[in-house]
């Protein structure tokens, strides 16, 4: 089980020290937004490269961008250990996932709340993780969508049938109040932005989330 705080809710003027605040986390989640796939703009590969050099923990890049077939591999090249592309934006997900793995990254597919899993189940052998979004991508601090839990269960069941090692990530509105239902549904990688960076102690919030998810 992994806790991956999202630096979207961190202080962008002090990202290195903001990463140090979550040194007890397993991953740091980096939200890349291009103002096209989502109506918000954050950062790109040069910033991920700089963060990878100073981060005490592996970077988990979540690419909310158009044309990931073209742009996603460079995030693996600059040091992201997990690279998540949105299936809604990918043209050739099999080739993309293989490219990411050949660059040494974990390959991950994200599903927006309105995107069903069943049409993409056949991709599981090419993937290391499936991200089930629990908010509409684009912004931190939104309300958790409990109606995505059946999809998490569906992915967990498919992974069990396949017998492989595919992790299931949830992202959006994950907090002390919602993480247990995610874990019950079968998620094992938990992204939390505002719940971690909005806390007085980010490290304590990480520990609390980990304890709740492991119950
Ligand atoms: C939303 C991002 C999330 C965001 C989560 O589009 O993908 O990673 O940072 O923030 P919270 O945890 O505040 O919902
Ligand atoms: Zn994210």
UniProtKB/TrEMBL annotation:
<dbReference type="InterPro" id="IPR013785">
    <property type="entry name" value="Aldolase_TIM"/>
</dbReference>
<feature type="binding site">
    <location>
        <position position="31"/>
    </location>
    <ligand>
        <name>a divalent metal cation</name>
    </ligand>
</feature>
<feature type="binding site">
    <location>
        <position position="62"/>
    </location>
    <ligand>
        <name>substrate</name>
    </ligand>
</feature>
<feature type="binding site">
    <location>
        <position position="29"/>
    </location>
    <ligand>
        <name>a divalent metal cation</name>
    </ligand>
</feature>
<dbReference type="Pfam" id="PF00834">
    <property type="entry name" value="Ribul_P_3_epim"/>
</dbReference>
<feature type="active site" description="Proton donor">
    <location>
        <position position="171"/>
    </location>
</feature>
<feature type="binding site">
    <location>
        <begin position="171"/>
        <end position="173"/>
    </location>
    <ligand>
        <name>substrate</name>
    </ligand>
</feature>
<feature type="binding site">
    <location>
        <begin position="138"/>
        <end position="141"/>
    </location>
    <ligand>
        <name>substrate</name>
    </ligand>
</feature>
<keyword id="KW-0119">Carbohydrate metabolism</keyword>
<keyword id="KW-0413">Isomerase</keyword>
<comment type="function">
    <text>Catalyzes the reversible epimerization of D-ribulose 5-phosphate to D-xylulose 5-phosphate.</text>
</comment>
<feature type="active site" description="Proton acceptor">
    <location>
        <position position="31"/>
    </location>
</feature>
<feature type="binding site">
    <location>
        <position position="62"/>
    </location>
    <ligand>
        <name>a divalent metal cation</name>
    </ligand>
</feature>
<feature type="binding site">
    <location>
        <position position="6"/>
    </location>
    <ligand>
        <name>substrate</name>
    </ligand>
</feature>
<comment type="pathway">
    <text>Carbohydrate degradation.</text>
</comment>
<comment type="similarity">
    <text>Belongs to the ribulose-phosphate 3-epimerase family.</text>
</comment>
<feature type="binding site">
    <location>
        <begin position="193"/>
        <end position="194"/>
    </location>
    <ligand>
        <name>substrate</name>
    </ligand>
</feature>
<dbReference type="InterPro" id="IPR000056">
    <property type="entry name" value="Ribul_P_3_epim-like"/>
</dbReference>
<feature type="binding site">
    <location>
        <position position="171"/>
    </location>
    <ligand>
        <name>a divalent metal cation</name>
    </ligand>
</feature>
<keyword id="KW-0479">Metal-binding</keyword>
<dbReference type="InterPro" id="IPR011060">
    <property type="entry name" value="RibuloseP-bd_barrel"/>
</dbReference>
<dbReference type="GO" id="GO:0004750">
    <property type="term" value="F:D-ribulose-phosphate 3-epimerase activity"/>
</dbReference>
<protein>
    <recommendedName>
        <fullName>Ribulose-phosphate 3-epimerase</fullName>
        <ecNumber>5.1.3.1</ecNumber>
    </recommendedName>
</protein>
<dbReference type="InterPro" id="IPR026019">
    <property type="entry name" value="Ribul_P_3_epim"/>
</dbReference>
């Amino acid at each position: 089980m992994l806790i991956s705080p999202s630096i979207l809710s961190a202080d962008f003027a002090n990202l290195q020290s903001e990463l140090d605040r979550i040194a007890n986390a397993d991953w740091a989640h980096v939200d890349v937004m291009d103002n096209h796939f989502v109506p918000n703009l954050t950062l790109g590969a040069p910033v991920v490269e700089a963060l990878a050099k100073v981060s005490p923990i592996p970077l988990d890049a979540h690419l909310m961008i158009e044309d990931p077939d073209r742009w996603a591999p460079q995030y693996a090249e600059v040091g992201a250990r997990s690279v998540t592309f949105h299936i809604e934006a990918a043209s050739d997900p099999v080739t993309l996932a293989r490219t990411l793995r050949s660059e040494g990254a974990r390959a991950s597919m994200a599903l927006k709340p309105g995107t069903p899993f069943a049409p993409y189940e056949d991709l599981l052998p090419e993937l290391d993780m499936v991200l089930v979004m629990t908010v509409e991508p684009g912004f931190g601090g939104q309300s958790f969508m409990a109606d995505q839990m059946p999809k998490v269960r569906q992915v967990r069941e498919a992974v069990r049938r396949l017998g492989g090692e595919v992790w299931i990530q949830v992202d959006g509105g994950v907090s002390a109040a919602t993480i247990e239902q995610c874990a019950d549904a079968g998620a094992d990688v938990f992204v939390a932005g505002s719940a971690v960076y909005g806390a007085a102690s980010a490290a304590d919030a990480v520990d609390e989330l980990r304890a709740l998810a492991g119950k």
